[in-house]
Amino acid sequence: MLTSVAPVLAEDPLWAISGFINYSRGDYGTSKDTTLLYIPFTLRVTPLERVTVSLTVPYLEQTTQTVFLTGGGVAVRKEKVRELQTARERVTRTERGLGDVLLKGQYVLLEERPTFPEIGSYLKIKFPTADEERGLGTGEFDETLGLDLSKTFLERLVAYLTLAYTFTGSPPGTELHNSFTWSVGAAYVVTKPFSVFAFLDGATAIAAGQEDPLELRVGAEYRLTEALKLTGSAGAGLSRGSPDYDVAGGFAVRF
């Protein structure tokens, strides 16, 4: 599952800008490895209390065309997998360009209390800006509804749970399934500027015959200044529906 590293500890700046580099490699159950370089830049705005809106514009570089990205994860292109047996060179090339732009709106339904977690909801729309002719996207809209829960324990430990459902648009001639995704994990503040985190991410498969993605991700976050922090992570796929491994790193600046 392709994921981007996001700042772990919750904050509510009026403006925030983040940029990340995510590199992953895996065969996703096919006989051909795919490498993905995903570089998203995100502008995050909090215009009202409890309300956050973000816009993500990504750059994407992809080797082989046996998979494509959707709003719910990575899907196998069955027609390209069949070509592996007869025209291997046609699915072994590198394409690069603009990825699918993401617009996300979040609302905090319930603020954290001593006996209750913070509960937030979000709506994310994937706009089909990636070139489907070059295998960089599906050419269809995706919509995701999600729920985020977080709870702080003993001041330094924060537990997280995310549940989401993606309505996946299917390109002509391809049937993609809607996807239920989940993520559970925690972050621990080792010292005031330094924290570590670990997450287990899962989902239902988007393409028929593909295994359900499951990935373990660990990382760390370091705050250089009050406004700037750096994040890095590494992930390992626990099923053939996920990349074999991925590494990511980036920054977030708040104003």
The strands making up the biggest β-sheet line up spatially as 1-2-3-7-8-9-10-11-12-13-14-15
Q: In total, how many domains does the architecture comprise?
A: 1
Number of helices: 1
User: Which residue ranges are poorly predicted, with pLDDT under 50 across at least 5 consecutive positions?
Assistant: 6-10
Head-to-tail CA distance between termini: 31 Å
CATH architecture descriptor: Beta Barrel
* Proportion of residues in helical segments: under 10%
Q: Per DSSP, what share of the residues sits in E-state strands of 2 or more residues?
A: over 45%
Please identify the structural class as seen in this structure. mainly beta
What gross morphology would you assign? globular
CATH superfamily: Autotransporter beta-domain
Largest sheet: 12 strands, antiparallel, barrel
CATH topology: Lipocalin
- How would you spell out the order of helices and strands? EEEEEHEEEEEEEEEE
Set out the fold topology.
Layout: E1 15-26, E2 34-48, E3 51-63, E4 67-70, E5 73-76, H1 78-83, E6 94-98, E7 101-110, E8 118-127, E9 142-153, E10 157-167, E11 179-191, E12 194-203, E13 214-223, E14 228-237, E15 245-254
